[in-house]
């Protein structure tokens, strides 16, 4: 009986340590998106995508500084941030101001060759929206709230289209109804947007966060909580659909508790490639 108790105690300490440590580390996930609408001037165009920072009491400034340094080391063409800047534990107006000021003091060190673009997430509303929008305005970030940004290299272009948050905002579906012919990247904090409006929107690559990859999973095989009405669909890294892909990041921060299990925080590096679409 004593041996069993020792084993159980050891397993408890091991798994508790694991979920706490995994919640504080991060990795760089690299992926290639190949599409015949990507022209030569955009071959190997590098996008760094992060989301769900959830900066707050359980997120050390030194960790965010390390993440920013890593992103800058990747030397991206553009950076895209998928929303949810503050943790849910940051509630009072004074705390919102304090944590946002520190967070953006660090985020303003981000560097990209062309620009930094962002959308809002569900946690970017309530008593923090105005303060967040002010910090974004004071930075070099360009907010894509139901807006389109055309990026030109020579005579060739790609389009970035960001929509407002599905739950707390007011996403404008009309902005994605027209097919321009250019390679189009649609950005929504919540991946459910891409399923809710699947039959009426046009894009080639969708980017989303929100689900945290389940955050705590059964060894990466099943997530009890996904924050999505589509179950396990958007726990995957990439969802392939006809003529388009949806890339979902596990995010940088942690929701509610600073823990992760087989859903490590990540920076996503996307390299665009010319040619026929492949599934990776």
Major sheet details: 6 strands, mixed
Tally of extended strands? 12
| Quaternary form | single chain
**Overall helicity:** 10-25%
Measured by DSSP, the beta-strand proportion falls in: 15-25%
How far is the N terminus from the C terminus?
A: 49 Å
Strand arrangement across the biggest beta sheet: 1-12-2-3-4-5
The count of helical stretches stands at 5
Low-confidence stretches: none
Average pLDDT value?
Answer: 93
> What is the overall shape?
globular
Radius of gyration: 19 Å
Order of helices and strands: HEEHEHEHEEEEHEEEE
Structural class: alpha/beta
How would you describe this protein?
With 280 residues, this protein is α/β, with parallel strands linked by helices. It has 5 helices and 12 strands. The chain has helices spanning 2-22, 61-74, 93-107, 129-138, 192-196, and strands at 27-35, 46-50, 78-81, 115-118, 141-143, 147-153, 156-162, 183-187, 205-208, 238-241, 244-248, 266-274. The strands form 2 sheets. It has a 6-stranded mixed beta sheet with strand order 1-12-2-3-4-5. The protein has a 6-stranded mixed beta sheet with strand order 6-7-8-9-11-10, with no helix packed on it. The longest helix has 21 residues, at 2-22. The protein is globular. 42% of the residues are buried.
